[in-house]
Amino acid sequence: MAVLVGKRAPSFKATAVIGTQVEEEFSLDRYLGKRYVLLFFYPADFSGLCPTELYAFQEMLPEFERRGVAVVGCSTDSHQTHQAWLRMPRDSGGIAGTTFPLVADATKTISANYDVLAGHYDYNEAGEMVFVGSPVAYRGLFLIDRDGIVRHQLVNDRFLGRRISDALRMVDALQHFEEHGETCPANWEADK
Fold it and tell me: What are the catalytic residues?
């Protein structure tokens, strides 16, 4: 697992779905110098666990936005799959009402560059390169500062969901450090 903390976040241009709109060349560069980014990866649209996380990110979106954080989701699904999932009502397993960008990583290069792609390439007995495993993203989460530097990363296996409030706490900790120059010890919480 590559550690990206302290390094520039890998850049990309990819198709994303934002609400009902498709953006062909979505890039995190739009946020440089302006906003923090919470880029999270999830395994697959139309799965059992993934919508619970997207619901939770959407519910906490006002808190992230209040702190100047753009939330961006990414999976190895196509933008057409994202669109279909966004059109499906929540009570049917969809994520209708989700407003943050969902990046389509159908080529799996973004997941590979962030080192969250499950599985690996190997050679079979005939000497042909084959993919071993399931080529979907692990549950990666990257907090990127306004300069494009990764300040926090967390990667879970596909069956382990995240607590979204922990991501918000990390945003608070980073902003506290930037504002006051003070480190944040274990179990640190922002003053209410």
Answer: 50
